[in-house]
Amino acid sequence: MPTKTWIEVPIDQEIESVPEDGYAPFFFPPEGADLLFHFTEESFLRVLSALINGAALTYPDTWLQVVWDFLQNVEYPVDLCEKIAECIASNEDTQAVIRAFVTNDESIRDWAEEIAGIAVLTAQQLGQNILKPGACDPGYTFNQASKFVFLLNQLSEDLFEAIEVGTNALERASLLISAIPAIGGLLPFDEALTLADSLVENVEEDYAGNYDQGLYDDLRCGLWCKFKDSCDLSIDDALAFYEEKLSTSLPQNPADTLQAIAQFILIGDIPGDFTVYAIHTLIIAAMRAGQEMFGINFAQLGIRITAAGDDIDNDWETICEECPAEVWCYFQDTTETVEFMDLVYTDAGYPYETAFTPSVGIEGARTGFLDEDIPKIVLPDMRVITGFSFDIDVTGDVTDVEAYLFFDGVFVDSAGVVAGPQTVYFEIPDGIPAEYIMFGVDRTGLDRSPVGAITAWQALGEGDNPFGEDNCEE
Asked: Which of 3, 184, 227, 249 is most buried, taking the most CB atoms under 10 A from its CB?
């Protein structure tokens, strides 16, 4: 038989609030009975303490079950779900355990990957033009740019409204995942929980405070400038526009993009207008990952814009400032295949050795050279050049040695050089139109001896890149 320990207590105690009529005898029905007790916090803690101690002494093998038989029927005046969510959101140890569990549990991981991979857009869809103006006309394209930004704002506000009805972090996270299912597969649960809470508690107010008519005009004018000439705007182009606004670079894989921008927002402390840029980027990233938001997916995005914006809107004439010129950069390694170069040159060793040959040996004769005397880059047509540089390894004595730059036979600038490998830079902030560029290193005077090997050059300019795609390193 189990050993029981008895506690002696004094019997000369009085109990307060005993009914005058005493207590009626109580019989438990076979199916059990619901008992109603009224406790203050203090009295409940005393009874619970006595119960735990008594159960531990009297029923040492099953004391936990005895205590649970009592506690499981108590109606707590707190929201247990809210307390659990609060614990997860505020306790790093709990977050670490959940993250490890989600990461290591194969079934959860498979489910998460399945969710994250829902209907990811193909490369063809990512590059597809989502605008179809009635004509490639500034009035049409500006109207569609306006509708695109308007729609992004509408979806952003719908997202806030959908989440804010949640009364606690857990409900908000559930509502966020309902709006963007891939979030549930791309973010650890604790991060999804924190993100949903942050969207309601911090980001929504900042968004509303910064999205006004001025910012709306800035966004639609900026977006319009990007595609007004081509009348072609893909969802990738839209993402690139907002990346530029955020001054950040996001991974290009659709699922990775969505995860990265969600974590960017999660970090918090996003200044001013950047809140708007970040939420619009989140909407675009969600659609790139194949998500449908409030009845609108990628396939319907262009339809909505076209239907709402297929009229002429010439407000760009008064609202928008002059569009900034597109800039390009091209790098050419001359030790390999030399393209876009006129190689007719008096020194057959080019591009490994160069020398400038003035037409006459007098001071100032540099403006009178012959085209074939120096390296020459031929452009397909006129371009505004804003910068030029080349790499050279200068050998021997550098006395009276200068680097030079000419556009269309007109002297632009010169620069000193030192012995050894170096990059010579020419900055042209206001830009100069040119059809061909000539450059090199020269010993002034009549000394025509080679001074080094040019190994690369790089040009920067405005407008379309005459050499194809940009290939300069960041």
From this structure: 227
Question: Which burial class, exposed, middle or buried, applies to 393 when counting CB atoms under 10 A from its CB (0-12, 13-18, 19+)?
Answer: middle
3 state SS of 440: strand
- Classify 199 in phi/psi space as left (phi over 0), alpha (psi -120 to 50) or beta: alpha
379, 310: one domain: no
Question: Within this chain, do residues 298 and 192 fall inside the same structural domain, yes or no?
Answer: yes
Q: Could you tell me the residue range of the domain that residue 30 belongs to?
A: 1-77
Are 358 and 259 members of one domain? no
- The per-residue pLDDT for range 120-179, each reduced to its tens digit, is 566 666 666 776 655 678 888 888 889 889 989 999 999 999 888 887 777 888 888 888
> Same domain for 341 and 400?
yes
CA dist 433 and 380 (Å) reads: 13
382-411 pLDDT, tens per residue?
A: 888 999 998 888 776 777 778 888 888 788
Give pTM, 2 decimals.
Answer: 0.55
Give the other-Cβ count within 10 Å of 326's Cβ. 13
